[in-house]
Design goal:
The complex is a heterotrimer of chains A (267), B (230) and C (594). Chain B is built from six helices and no strands. Chain B is mainly α. In chain B, helix 2 packs antiparallel against helix 4. Chain C has one domain: Cytochrome C Oxidase, Chain A. Classes of the chains: A alpha+beta (267), B mainly alpha (230), C mainly alpha (594). At the A-C interface, helix 1, helix 2, helix 3 and strand 7 of A face helix 4, strand 1, helix 8, helix 10 and helix 11 of C.
Amino acid sequence: MAKLLAVTIVVIAIASAIPIVAHMWPMPQDISTHGHLIDEQYADTMLEAGISFLASQLLLAFFIWKFSNPKPGDKVKSFPGGAAGLVIAAFLLVGTECLALGVFGAKAWASVYFTPPAADAVPVQVQAGQFAFYFRYPGPDGTFGPLHADQINEANANFYGLDTTHDQDSKDDIVTAEMAIPVNREIHLLMHSKDVGHSFYVPELRVQQDFVPGLDVALHFTATKVGKYEIVCTQLCGLGHYNMKAYLEVKSQEDYDSWIKQQAALQ
Amino acid sequence: MATTVHEPPKIDLDRLPSQGSGNGGWRNLTPANGDLRQLKDSSPPPASTGIWVGLAAITMSFAAFTSALIVRQGAAQDWRHFTLPPVLYLNTLVIVASSVTLELARRQIAAFMGGLRDEGTDKAQAANPARWLYITLFLGLLFVAGQTFAWMQLKSQGFGLATNVSYSFFYVLTVAHAFHVFGGLGGLVRVIVKLNKSVLRRSTLVATSRYWHFMGVLWLYLLLLLWMKL
Amino acid sequence: MHDMSAHAVHHGAPTSFIRKHVFSLDHKVIGKQYYALALVAALLGMFLSWLMRIHLGFGSFAIPGLHLLSSTGAPGNVMTPEYYLQLMTMHGTIMVFFVLTTAPFAAFGNFFLPIQTGAEDMPFPHFNMMSFWVTFAAFLPIVASFFLSDGPTLGGWTQYAPLSAIGSAGGPGEGLGVVLWATSIGLFCIGQLLGSLNFITTTLDMRCKGMSLMRLPLTAWAWFLTSVMGLAAFAVLMPATILLILDHVAGTSFFVASNLVINDHLLPHSGGSTLLWQHLFWFFGHPEVYIAIVPGMGIVSHILITNMRRPMLSHRVLLYSMAALVVLSYMVYGHHMFVSGMNPVSSLAFSFPTLVITIPSTIIVLIWLGSLYGSKLRINSASLFSLGFVSMFISGGVSGFFLAQPSIDIMLHATYFVVGHFHLVMGVAAMFGIFAGTYFWFPKMTGRMMNETLGKVHFWMSFVGAYCIFMPFHYLGIAGNVRRYQAFTDDYLIPLIPVHKFITVAALFTGVAQLIFLYNLIHSRFKGEIAPNDNPWQGTSLEWSTATPPPHNNFGDKMPVVYHDPYQYSVEGASTDYIMQTSPENVHSPDEEK
C-alpha cells in the first residue's frame, strides 16, 4: 500500500502540473501597460512554486516507497547532513526566493500604486452600489459636480445624487451604465461606493481594487488593446453580487470621442 | 472536595505577600544543574500562572478596543470631544483605595493564618481577618455605583451610546471595565467565603488580589486614554 | 512531600449520570464532548458544502426536499441567490470555528494534554467544563439562524462591514441573522479563552516528576502554542463582535461610514470605518488559521514518529519552527487586505513577513521529509492520513507563495485560487490531522480499534477526492473565476462551468467517504475489535502508559515519573525498539536531554 501511495502522489503531482504547463485555463490576456510586470512576477513565482511543489511531492513519494515496510533487521538511518543542512537549505533557498520575489514584486506593486497619474489622464468616476456599477465623466468643464447622497433616486436614474439645478459643475456630467475609455491613454479612475463594500476587477487590465465606503480610492491604468471586457464585482455585497458587472469598452480615440458625444446627448 | 480543617500554610517568612507568589511559574522548567532526574516535585500553584493568562487576555481585549478608538477617531471628522464627568475622578480614588485596603487585608490574613506573633498586634489578630476584605468589597461596589452614576448623569443630559462616537467609546470602555470589575467582586466574595470556612488557599488569595489590582491599573489606563482622546 | 496532586482540584470520580456524562469536570469527558460537537458540526458543514457544490455545478437542479429546509430560500427546491450565500456563510462559520478550532485543539487537546504532561486533570476543571458548554451554547445561535424567516446571515464567515453592520437593509439575513452570528462568535471566543487558560496552566504547572518542557511530546507543545495564539486572537475578535452588535442594535457607527444609501434611503450611520472591521477581524483571522493547523502539525508529527520508529530529525528545530510560526502569525494579517484600500505601503510591509513565514513552514516540511529518510515506516490508517497531511500541506503552502505577493494578489484576490489555497491547508490538511488523531487515539479513548480496511478506504477516497476537488480551484482562480458567486453568468466565466461540474462530482464522491468514516467511528465504538493492550502502536508518550481507557484520575494510584525524552525509538542498546517515557531502563540515545 505504501508503494501505491507513492505512485499516487507522483501521479497527482504530475497531473496537477499539466494544466498549468499546458495553459489549459490561462490567465486572461494582458491589455495593460503595467501588466507585464505582474505577469513576469507570476511566471517567476510559478516556476519556483512549481519546482518546490514537484520536488517535495516527489521526494515524499520516493521516501514513502523506499522506507516503508521495513524488514526486521533494518536499522534507522539519519538524513545526510542532519537537520542543520535542511535548515540552511531552507534559509538560503527559500530566503533568497522570498527576498527576490518581495523586492522585485515591490516594483510591480509600485507601478500601480506609487506612481502619480499622468497630468493628461482621462478622469472617470465609478460608483458601485447594490448591484450595479455606474460611471461618470466630467464633461467639457473637466470637473465632477458634488454628490448629494440624500438626492440619490434610482427610479429617476439619478444614481449619483447630482443636483443639476444648483450645481454648475454637475450640469455637464455624463453618467453611463457602461464604461468606455480611449485606448493607449491613461485613465484616472475614482472609485466611490454608494452603500457597502464592492470591488472593481478587470482581469485583462490587471486591476483589482476594493471600494471602501467612506473613502474614495483612486486608481490609474492604461489599456493597450481595443475590445470589450467585463468589470466584475469581487467583494461580497449581497444577494446580487454574482451578477454585478458592467462592460468596459476600450475604443480608438475617435470612437471614444463620438461615444462621449452620444452619451452626453442622452443625459 | 476537601473538607478538612484548614492547616495554617507554611509561610516562608522571607517571602511575604508583597514579594510575589512563591515558586513562580517559570522556575521549574529545567533544574539549574541540568539533571532532570532531580526535578523537584513542587510546582507553582496553577492559580498564579492562570491569573496571568487571564490578565493577558483581558489586556488584549482592551488593546483591541483602544486600537478601534484610535482608528475610528482618525477615520472621520465627526468626533465630538466632551469633558469627562467629574465623578470619574472620585471613582478613581475609590478604586485605588480599594487596592490599598486589599493589601491591608492580605497582610492581616497572612498574620492570622501564619501565626506571625507580634506583641503589639494581638488585638488586631483577634479581629475578623476578613474585615479589610469586606471594606475592599464595599469600595468595589462603591466604584461600580459611581460609574453607574456617571452613566446616568450623561444619559440624563441627553448623551447616550449613539449620540456621538466619542460617547460610544466612553460607554463601551467603561461598561466593559465595570463588567470585569464585577468579576473581581465575585472573586472577592469567593475569597471571603473560603476564608470564613477556613479553606482559603494562599494561591487563591494571591490570584484574586492580582486580578483586583489589575482592575485598578486598567482603570487608570482607561481614564488616561479617555481624558486624552475624548 | 509536596505532591503535585495537591494543586489539582481533587474531584472524586463522579457517580451520577449527569456528573459523568453531561456536566463533567473530567477533561477526558470534556474532550469527547468537544469531539462530538465537532462531529455534528462537520456533518452539518459538509452537508452545506454538498448543497453549495450541487448548485454551483448544476445551477438549475432542483434538490429534492430543499424547500423543507427553507421554503423562501429554495422555492421549488431550487436555491435562490441569497440562500446560496447564506448556506455558504454558515458552511464557513461552522467549519472554521466549530470543526477546525474545536476538534484538533479542544477535543484531542482536552483529552490528551493532561495525560501527556502527567497530570490528574487540568487545574481549573470548572472553567474547563464551562468552556465546553459555552462553546456548545455558541453553536445554538448559528443553528437557530437557519430558522429565521429571512434566513441566516449571508455576509460570508468574514462578515465585512458595512454590509454586516447596516441591518436588514443589506439583504436577507442581515438583521437578526448577523446579531445571532456575532453572538455565537462572541460566545465562542469566551469558550476558547477559558480553554486556553487551562491548556497553558496545565503545560506550565502540571507536569509530573521528570517531565521537563523539552520532554513534552510535540502534541503537547502544539496544543500549548495554539492556546497561546488563541489567547491574543480570540481576545481581539470578541470586542470586534461586540462593536458589530452595537452597530446593529444600538445605533452606533463604529464600522458604517456616512452618506450611505440603499434603496434610495440614506442610512442613519455616520463616520464609521470600513477598514477597522477588517483590521480587527484579520488580526484574529490569521492566527486563527494557524490555530487550525498547528495542532494538526503536532498530531501528525507525533503519529509519524510512532509509525516511523524514530524521532524527528531534529525535535528542537521542529519545535522552534512551530514557535516561529506562532510569533510570525501576528505580523502577517494584512495580506488579507492587500487590495482593501488600506495604504499600499502597508500592503508591502505585510508582504515581507508573509514571505518570511514560508521559511519555518518549509523547515517543518523538510524535517518531516528528512525524518522519513531512513525510517521504518509502518502503514496504517493513522500514518496514511499523516502522510496525506504532509502532501496536502505542501500543496496548500505552495499556493500561499503567490498570494503573499501584493502584485500577484491583484489577480488572485477573491478568486477560487484563494479558496483552493485555504481549503487545501484547512479543509483538507487540518481535517486529515483530525482523522489521523482519531484512528490513532481511538483505542486509548475507547478500548477498541477502528476498522483498518474501512480506514484505508476512507483515506484513499478522501486523498484522491480532495485533490480532484481543490486542485482545479487553482486553475479556476488563475483564469479569474471570482469566489462567492452563486452562479456564473459573466461571459468569461461560462466556459469554466464544466470544471465546476467535475468538482461537484468529486465533492460528492469525497463526501461519501466521510460517511464511511462516520459508520466506522460509530460501529467501532460498540463493536470494534478490542484493543490488544494499553499500547497497541508501541508508543512512548505518557498516554500509552495509562490503562485503557484511562481511569478518572488518569494514572490510578501512582503518578508517573518520567526518565526519558518523548520519542526514544530505535535507540542503540535498548531491549526493544521503543523506550517509554516512564521506563526505568537506563539506556539513552546520544542526543537525549540529560
